[in-house]
């Protein structure tokens, strides 16, 4: 069952990782495309204009980067808890959003995978429900995700991924998307892209043109297109009948000078045509107009056509002419078509015999140095080979290869560390094997709030008799409620069974109704006191500072201390057990000097194992006790650490005690439930004889 669960979590994790990496990457390499999609959503929610475009570009980059980073982090199991929760929240939000677009149909394509993969709204909803279920499973058991890279090296994956995707995104915004999934990609013959195969059902489109004359704006179609006294305002193309939809179905050019449809003329032209594409000239970047004008002059000299294609009206065109000195011809086309053609405003496209052979953003236009000969003699004038594989390889080499190398190095490092640890553990083990004899072995009972006085005294008598008859080879202590102490002290042979309290006050004496001081405990004949038990920390709010006071008072009154520490289940799942335990020791006992330290016995009790029947495995317990011993060694030196008795507590029974006690660092147990019956308790004590 456990195996099945772990497999399921890991399968879901890889499904999420692959989807998020893909969807994040295709968004990140096309920030303008993502921006257009965000605007579609904003328009559908009547939120248009809420944020300026430059801010929306930031949102688009952040969205792509977030998805990509979540995917990579999921793949490498980086920050498993946080990442799985963010993924779940993200998927929950996306599922609600896609439910809305499925029901209300405000946008036709969700934009989840940019232009790389188009899904219907129904498919998107289904996909998101599946992914949300995967995310819920992973968020439920994040620690089941196997790590590829150790925690200490995960920061490299985190920073590298975020830096890589943000830089890629900004680069693509500055130039053009590295991968072009749109129909107007390099190599596409526009005319062929518009063809409908024989026999395929014909879709029908209708373009309407908004034109203005004497302040009156009217709609026209191609059939009743008026003379050039009408000023062009806008074009709208709508599909009136579904059918086979060719990849390009919305390419139509109308000359701004004559009002004629010049689509055929441009697409059938033999030779070269430059198309300067600007969806809106009013918001086009005019900083490179010098380069554009030079390319136009070059085109003129070399017999190539040059058009500026825009959806702008005459006034915007005039403004552009005044601003840039443009002498080239202008023609109109649908704004969405132009945004699809090139992700730059303006951007430049070069056609040869109607086929797109190159594209440039206005930031990376060909320079005069590149245009030294007729186009047919230049590299840019030749049809480019499809370089998709080359670019995929670059992505693999620049992103996945370094991370794979890091993973390999990390695994090798972890493996060599494991070997070194094993060797040094063997050395320490041998040392502790002998030293363990010198350290006190202890089995201590913690009765908690159980048994009245008579039953308690009877149990103490029974334990005492059993141990006097069959001498233990470890120190035995029973820790009882306050009211039992004096009476129990009277029935114990103190050379065989020690006595301890379960608590003492953090004040020396005075008006503290109901409290019992360390001095009072000592006066009963007890030699020990348990301090720092998780139940007292949890139910009675005992903080590190309060415990420090209690520790000092107990020692000042000649009591030895069984000091408890341990982590909760959440802390262990977050792999914080070491830091929790260290902080508990530092907060309450590490202020003691070396002499006082000799009176401290530590009991490591993972809270998730106390009274739950869930014992830590002997390896888990050994690992923690070895860690605690190394922490004591750091503070008090190796010799003091080797002399400190460290106990394990948490559902310890006669059945599991022999295995636990066989571990080199485990010096005995603090026993709760199993100390309330003489036979059970004795069974644990006898584990030292095995
Ligand atoms: C305890 O509370 O100290 C303890 C170890 O309890 P149990 O053995 O019942 O888990």
Please describe the structure with a list of short key phrases separated by commas or semicolons.
single chain, 690 residues, alpha/beta, Glutaredoxin, 4 domains, 8-stranded parallel barrel, 6-stranded mixed beta sheet, elongated, gluconeogenesis, membrane, EC 5.3.1.1, glycolysis
Quickly give the CATH architecture of the largest domain: Alpha-Beta Barrel
DSSP helix fraction: 40-55%
**Main sheet, how many strands, which sense, barrel?**
8 strands, parallel, barrel
Bound molecules: phosphoenolpyruvate
Mean of residue pLDDT? Answer: 92
**CATH level-1 class of the largest domain:** Alpha Beta
How many separate structural domains?
A: 4
GO cellular component, one term: membrane
GO molecular function, one term: triose-phosphate isomerase activity
Family: Belongs to the triosephosphate isomerase family.
EC number: 5.3.1.1
Structure notes:
This protein is of the alpha/beta class. It has 4 domains: 2-174, no CATH class; 190-385, Glutaredoxin, CATH 3.40.30.10; 390-431; 444-689, TIM Barrel (Alpha-Beta Barrel). The chain has 24 helices and 17 strands. Strands 10-11-12-13-14-15-16-17 form an 8-stranded parallel β-barrel, surrounded by 6 helices. Helix 4 packs antiparallel against helix 5 and helix 13 runs parallel beside helix 14 (482-491). The longest helix is centred in the middle third of the chain and has 51 residues, at 388-438. The protein is elongated and about 120 Å long. Bound molecules: phosphoenolpyruvate. Phosphoenolpyruvate binds next to strand 17.
